[in-house]
């Protein structure tokens, strides 16, 4: 129990936090269909650079979707998801490079690998909560680059590995970046669907119960440890898949790509986007991709300043993240439209 | 609860259907897009070559530097480059072309380097990428540069692979490779202390390993022996433990293959341990005014490094017109930079080399620049040390391969001996050393 | 044997630094239940303040108390401006806010003082000439200061009126508030004290590691490990753990072949995981708060 809660200075639970599941936006299907159409049309309307940027947003979005499973659904904190990204990326680079496996095989392979690793590393989740899990995962993130360098025979060591980029099949008539974008978009859609299914399942309801009241959940027969470990593994799998796509998009992996900074920034993006919302990962990824680049015009140190400031302000002023703000805005618009 | 699940599933199906429909609609459009085309020369001897980013009176150049993050000390390179381009533009530009220099920040992360370079090439439509910093970022970008056929010239990293790699003809190095630098130290030891024992402290990354391997190669079959080695990670707080270990070897020479912070720590420990007094060789990357200011004079036997460019802080060059122009322009165009910084001087000198390459283009095209940087014939640069010039040729992608030794005495560096041309002494760098 | 001694001495001097930062982490956690990931960066900021004062010509032992005062005030300010707004939020909110602070402070320091390495004067003489252990004097000085800080905290908690008030707040905030204690002010004081201890750690570490904005990045993991071993509550165990970690990592880097210098950083990870998984005590304190 937090001290501040006992002293009575507790923020009132409102909106989704208080269990409000009313629909704020009356046209979800139309909006989703429009979004899907825009997403599919984008690569044909935009310059290659913008397509690349969108692809990166989707890749980060998949990673954040996984992180949200741990952070938003299970109420735990991971400062080490960069490690799973590294696993996925290196699996892809090694499997398609030296081992010569075809692309379609690589994705499930790295998903499987990172799932297994997440299951193994998720064991701490059996016993740890909150900040303690954060400390352990932070330490994992710190150890990853030296470990990659240690096994240089496989990983290329500190020099990194070139990962081959999937090229568009000739029958499609697409440019490579368009093909890659559509590929990543398809994976992202599948990932989103899978996450929603997971949350709507028995397991998802168990997680919600654990998050809201662990003691009550346990009394009702929910096996807390098993569920937490499993969700950690699922989350690791998402990060691993994102890592594989990352290797395809960037075309190069090196230990410096997966430093502790990446893990920290991922968590920050999850919180800024909104950890408990389907729109959160996408907004977090947009934050991750655009804010540092946009802030750079203001000066050399500005990206860090702005990113840090945005995180603090969002957490202080809008605990539900950008997605929460979007929801509020959508609600306001819908009400106004409804009144007319 | 069941209802929500079924609803979610239905929604998902609807979305999948919509996505498939949209995809089916747009697929026939494949390949075509509403984006601009790259510039191509249509007539004359240069027909068919790319002229994006270059016009009769301007040329647009992009650079990606670590302005934030762990390696941000190298951000000062950008200041030196900016100052030189400002200086050139004030003098009428290169062959009448003003240089427009766009700087982006990659935070020393390879993924961001790729993103920023794509931004430079595809959005800003630069003519060439003049400088990526660090081996990871450069290695990450060069595949893209080769695919897009954009020159990635004079990258700020001494890894030996840029010069020997034929698969990436659009990427070329600049500074003396780490292997070349290691050879200079090896040569010095072979001549002055043929039976020396050496302890090596190196950073566990491409740079540290390249230099260490180069050194081990160069002293093979000689009386100089490596008796102890310790590595450290950039993320380590300190190298005190490593130094204690090396001290126990009692070696005659300490080769410190480090970046500035760790070099300063190594100096401090060397000064504090009075029972071990090796000759302290520090690689040129680590030498910065702040690091050398921290050295306690008299407590370290001898400090040696290798140099190839003029040092603005050195009274020897106080009246040198080239260094004078550097100081003045830096003050005008990049006042935030410290003129004594090696990095700013590095940027200035490299920018000068780049301008010389631009002047030597036969065609004002990307292909022309690529040919020009591979055809440098003892081109002088006035802020390089006398006797050191830029030379490249077919199969030789190392513009600078000569260095001089310098000793740190009475608070400043004094060069000594002759210019060592490592190519003449050791032959060409054959292959990139193992990473 | 002399080699081993030298290794141990170097390990201790690093360990004292870990212990100092870990003490600050423990302080904040005891008062506010927050694991402050920005503690290292705040300490780095304090060290820059000290450096600025020294650079202006102030003698070391005059600059030191001024730095402490500025840091305590700064810590209280951060608590008042930022932390108080998120108190009562979940663990996630708290961790995220300190991570945001970490990124912000690091960039701000880079903006003001640039990322160039700066040397920092050592308040203790470095060499005495006793063979290989001479650099131990500096380590002893650092150790001594950390011990003094630890004792001072102990005395403050146990034997002063202010300490009694603090303990009351920690033990039962609601009753403390009902008894007329300004709980918010005490929490602010906790952050201020922690920032002060962090400043001490920073000033002590700067001559050893050299001053730059990323100076504390590598220290944080070790300090967190030490704090975990101390259960985030016991200052004495925390200090001992910090010292032990410094020595263990140094020795493992030298004598355990598989670890080597490159995997030294895995030592704190192993320690954290072992400490949290084997004895249930620490894990329980984490889970039952």
Structure in words:
The complex is a heterotrimer of chains A (340), B (435) and C (289). Chain A is mainly alpha-helical and 340 residues long. Chain A has a domain at 50-159 and 174-259. Helices cover 73% and strands 1% of the residues of chain A. Chain A has helices spanning 3-6, 28-45, 48-73, 81-96, 103-121, 123-127, 130-150, 152-155, 176-200, 202-212, 214-219, 224-250, 260-273, 280-295, 302-317, 321-339; strands at residues 161-162, 252-253. Chain A has a two-stranded antiparallel ribbon. Chain A is globular and about 55 Å long. With 435 residues, chain B is α/β, with parallel strands linked by helices. Chain B folds into two domains: 50-176 and 314-390, 3-Layer(aba) Sandwich (Rossmann fold); 178-307 and 402-426, Response regulator (Rossmann fold). Chain B has 14 helices and eleven strands. Chain B has helices at residues 2-26, 76-90, 110-123, 135-148, 161-164, 178-192, 206-219, 240-247, 260-272, 289-293, 321-333, 342-359, 366-373, 422-426, and strands at residues 58-65, 98-105, 128-132, 152-153, 197-203, 225-232, 253-257, 279-282, 302-307, 402-409, 412-421. In chain B, the strands form two sheets. In chain B, strands 6-5-7-8-9-10-11 form a seven-stranded mixed sheet, sandwiched between helices. A four-stranded parallel sheet of chain B has the order 2-1-3-4, sandwiched between helices. In chain B, helix 2 crosses helix 11 (321-333) and helix 2 crosses helix 12 (342-359). The radius of gyration of chain B is 25 Å and the shape is globular. In chain B, 58% of the residues are buried. By secondary structure, chain C is mainly α. In chain C, helix 1 (2-32) packs antiparallel against helix 8 (183-209) and helix 9 crosses helix 10 (235-255). The chains are: A mainly alpha (340), B alpha/beta (435), C mainly alpha (289). Chains in contact: A-B, A-C, B-C. At the A-B interface, helix 2, helix 3, helix 7, helix 9 and strand 2 of A face helix 1, helix 3 and helix 4 of B.
